[in-house]
């Protein structure tokens, strides 16, 4: 790993890592769930949008977006081989999932429309939750997420057009991320020589150690 790969990029890297993980993990969980729950690809569709930010306008469903609301606990944990500081930083993350009333191959809404919208939202919520719970690192060795902090918040079901509705769920949790600083190289050396020193008293300066042969 290059020393720049883990350089702290903050929330940008956190959002990218989470979306990349969901893109790689969620489709397979959905396919398995369809078989287990007796649903077709229209009743339980794959997300049409994975966004590294919370979507500003919703025109694709289901959609998944991420928002990082805070960073805290900048605990210095170690140093790199270049003596750059390493930190374990806590981020608070919110993952938004929005669904619309499922439509069949002819774009006809499944009935009852309101109940089907709630069912799809809840199914997607369970699958997003499962995606996070199956990996303590989200497939990234520099990330550790705290499952004890996970919570789900369900939105109201909102009518949008005709007999269609929109509903969402928010997953809120904390993750801890290994990050390091990056410092410019000041120079190189081939040999390092450190003279022997001895200290007299806890509050005194170090003075050169003199052996009997030097007298």
Protein architecture, described:
The longest helix is centred in the N-terminal third of the chain and has 27 residues. It contains two helices and eight strands. Strands 1, 2, 3, 4, 5 and 6 form a six-stranded mixed beta sheet that branches. With 215 residues, the chain is α+β, with helices and mostly antiparallel strands. Helix content is 22%, strand content 35%. It starts with 10 loop residues before the first helix and ends in a 7-residue tail after the last strand. The chain has one domain.
Layout of helices and strands:
Elements (H helix, E strand, L loop, with lengths): L10 H27 L11 E3 L11 E17 L5 E16 L12 H21 L9 E12 L3 E4 L2 E17 L16 E3 L6 E3 L7
Parallel strand pairs: 1-2
Antiparallel strand pairs: 2-3, 3-6, 4-6, 5-6, 7-8
Helix pairs in contact: 1-2
Intertermini distance: 52 Å
Shape: elongated
| Helical fraction | 10-25%
Number of domains: 1
Tally of DSSP β-strands? 8
Strand content: 25-35%
Q: What structural class do you assign from the helix and strand content?
A: alpha+beta
- Largest sheet descriptor: 6 strands, mixed
Q: Helix segment count?
A: 2
Average predicted confidence as pLDDT: 83
Rounded to an integer, what's the Rg over CA atoms? 26 Å
Low-confidence stretches: 1-6
Element-level helix/strand string: HEEEHEEEEE
Q: How is this structure best summarized?
A:
The protein has 215 residues and is α+β, with helices and mostly antiparallel strands. It is 22% helix and 35% strand.
């Amino acid at each position: 790993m290059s020393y720049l790969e883990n350089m702290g990029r903050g929330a940008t890297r956190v959002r990218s890592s989470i979306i990349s993980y969901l893109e790689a993990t969620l489709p397979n969980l959905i396919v398995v769930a369809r078989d287990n729950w007796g649903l077709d690809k229209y009743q339980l569709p794959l997300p049409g949008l994975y966004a590294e930010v919370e979507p500003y306008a919703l025109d694709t469903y289901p959609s998944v977006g991420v928002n990082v609301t805070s960073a805290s606990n900048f605990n210095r944990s170690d140093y790199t081989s270049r003596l750059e500081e390493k930190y374990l930083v806590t981020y608070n993350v919110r993952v938004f999932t929005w669904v619309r009333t499922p439509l069949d191959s002819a774009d006809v809404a499944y009935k009852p429309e309101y109940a089907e919208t709630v069912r799809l939202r809840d199914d997607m919520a369970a699958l997003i939750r499962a995606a996070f719970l199956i990996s303590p690192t989200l497939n990234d060795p520099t990330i550790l997420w705290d499952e004890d902090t996970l919570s789900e918040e369900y939105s109201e079901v909102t009518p949008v057009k005709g007999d269609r509705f929109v509903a969402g769920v928010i997953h809120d949790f904390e993750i801890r991320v290994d990050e390091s600083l990056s410092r410019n190289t000041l120079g190189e050396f081939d040999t390092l020589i450190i003279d022997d020193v001895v200290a007299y008293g806890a509050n005194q300066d170090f003075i050169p150690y003199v052996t009997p042969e030097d007298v």
